[in-house]
Amino acid sequence: MPRHDTLFAEAEEVAAPAIAHALFSIGDVVRHRLFGFRGVVFDVDPVFANTEDWYQAIPEEIRPRKDQPFYHLLAENGETSYVAYVSQQNILADDSDEPVDHPAIDGIFDTYADGRYQLRREHMH
Question: Strand, helix or coil at 112?
Answer without folding.
Answer: strand
